[in-house]
Structure formats: C-alpha cells, structure tokens
Design brief:
The structure holds two protein chains of two kinds. Chain A has no helices and eleven strands. By secondary structure, chain A is mainly β. The N and C termini of chain A lie far apart (32 Å). Chain B has no helices and eleven strands. Classes of the chains: A mainly beta, B mainly beta. The A-B interface holds A 4, 33, 35, 40-43, 45, 48, 58, 90, 92, 94, 101-105, 107-110 and B 6, 8, 31-32, 34, 41-46, 49, 51, 88, 90, 92-94, 99-100, 102-105.
C-alpha cells in the first residue's frame, strides 16, 4: 500500500458543486500539504498543516478549505467548484527529523479534477 | 516575478547524452536545495538534496549549488530512456524562505 493515499484519483464535477479530496498517510508525519499542479505553473501550495491544530494558508488558498481530522488525514474542499480549479492535486507529507530544513516531501499519486 | 524560475522545456536528448537542468532563485534565504523527479501520472519523488553551496554526486546524477549566483543545476550523465520525466527543483530556508518552494519543472525526453 502507498504511504500517502489520495481519493478519488479522478473526478469530474460541475460548476458550483462542493467537492472534497481526501488524503491519508501511514508515515506518521506531522506535516501535511495540499498542492495543485498546472502546466507551466509547477506545484503551488494551497494549504499546509504542521500538526492537527495548526493549519495555514498557502499561496493560492482562495476558493479552498481544509480539515485536519487526525494526524494521518488531511482533506481539501472546494466549496463551489469553478472551471479554473481544474488541475492535478497532490497531497504530501514531511517530517523535519533532526534537521529542521530536512523537508523531504512524500507525495500521493494525485487527484485529477475536472470542473465543467 | 517568481521566487524560483525553471525552464519548462521540453528538453529532448539522445540516449547517452549529458543533460543539464537549471533553476535560478531570488530569495537569498534559501539554504536547502532539492531535485524531485516526476514520472507521468505519478507524484514527485525526491532525487537529490544539497545543503548550501557546493556539489553532490550520486551515481549518474550531480547536483550543484552556487549561492553567489543564486543558481542550481542538476547534471545527468549517460542519460537513459528511463530518465525521461519531469524534473522539479525545490528549495527551503529560514524566515521568508521557510516554506518548500518548487520550480515549474523541466520535462526531459531521452530518445533511443
């Protein structure tokens, strides 16, 4: 089984619908992240969480919300989906360990979301 | 202006060629530099990391960091078709650079 699991892998939804993307991890890491990837724009950080009680906005949080239900679970919601939220979404985890900048991020397989 | 700039490619090279992938950055607070490799339909995976300036070698891969020029490179020797992927640079540091920041990625195709 994958260390970082995202569900669903693919989703097509209509404009205005609410949709939730889920992420679970078995690595025991405190830090979790949601990114979106668009051609030519790379990976952009939406939200990140350093522990269950610590949630922070990334560079493109407008139109998104998150919930950290447990150390292992971090969900991303689109309250009212719009077409320009069509993208590949990745969840990631990291653990600084003994070096606070040792932030190797472990990524899930991605969720391809299409908003029509 | 983006904090991290990376040529998106695509870059196509024949098998056996030496490949050079590069990123520039603007925030001098970045101190820890990474290269991720992303195969099609997969999430990125860490390939190499370097702390501060200098070189690091791992098999056919060499990472270089020049902090004075704010320039990092990844060299791939004897490139193989299995190296075909998108390569993303990433970096992190302190203060204003305390979040992991990615480049846009360079798509590499190694042909037979």
């Amino acid at each position: 089984d994958a260390d970082v699991t995202q569900t669903p892998r693919n989703r097509i939804t209509k404009t205005g619908k609410r949709i939730m993307l889920e992420c679970s991890q078995t690595k025991g890491h405190d830090r979790m992240y949601w990114y979106r990837q668009d051609p030519g724009l790379g990976l952009r950080l939406i939200y990140y969480s350093f522990d269950v009680k610590d949630i922070n906005k990334g560079e493109i949080s407008d139109g998104y919300s998150v919930s950290r239900q447990a150390q292992a679970k971090f969900s991303l919601s689109l309250e009212s989906a719009i077409p320009n939220q069509t993208a590949l979404y990745f969840c990631a985890t990291s653990d600084p360990g003994t070096h606070y900048m040792n932030t190797e991020a472990f990524f899930g397989q991605g969720t391809r979301l299409t908003v029509v | 202006q983006k904090e991290v700039e990376q040529d998106p490619g695509p870059l196509s090279v024949p098998e056996g060629a030496i490949v050079s992938l590069n990123c520039t950055y603007s925030n001098s607070a970045f101190q820890y530099f990474m290269w991720y490799r992303q195969y099609s339909r997969k999430g990125p995976e860490l390939l190499m990391y370097t702390y501060s300036s200098g070189n690091k070698e791992d098999g056919r891969f060499t990472a270089q960091v020049d902090k004075s020029s704010k320039y990092i490179s990844l060299f791939i020797r004897d490139s193989q078709p299995s190296d075909s992927a998108t390569y993303l640079c990433a970096m992190i540091g302190t203060g204003t650079a305390s979040k992991l920041t990615f480049g846009t990625g360079t798509r590499l195709q190694v042909t037979l």
